[in-house]
Amino acid sequence: MNRTLLIGLLLLGGVAIGLFLTMPAYQEYQQDRFLLGQRAQEVKNQETYFADLASVKARLEEFPRELAKVEAALPLDPELPLFYDLLQKNAALSGMVLQSVAVSLEEAKDQPLRRISAVVEFTGSYGSLKQLLSNLNRASRAVALRAVNISGSQDQGTLKAILELKAYSY
């Protein structure tokens, strides 16, 4: 009986020592499996994301004219010379005379769009001013009117208009 008890105890002790020695490796194996599962899920999510981007790109390619309008309204660069040209052409088309332009760029780190603030001075008639505002409203570039200051002279029939404008770019 002593012999069977001794064999049983040695067998039990061997199993305990075996478990004690293999437990850290097993825990590391479990942790590696868990990390592998996480990485596999991340890869699957990225594949889904890129597949969604590809489908959105394919859908956007169906609208080239509309995309061109958006790109014209919100250019990648501020393109200040083109902005000046827009103001000059719209002033000439409406019969106003562009007197001065003061521009400043505003870049907010938390917003994707850059703002171009402009204070522009024009002279001309009231009808020309209305036409200029209508032209700027229909311009291909996104231009927002912030304020208008109008002063006029009684003897000449012309007025001076100072417009505060905001334009946007990426």
UniProtKB/TrEMBL annotation:
Pfam families: PilO. One of its GO terms (biological process) is type IV pilus assembly. It comes from the Bacteria. This is Pilus assembly protein PilO. It comes from Candidatus Wildermuthbacteria bacterium RIFCSPHIGHO2_01_FULL_49_22b.
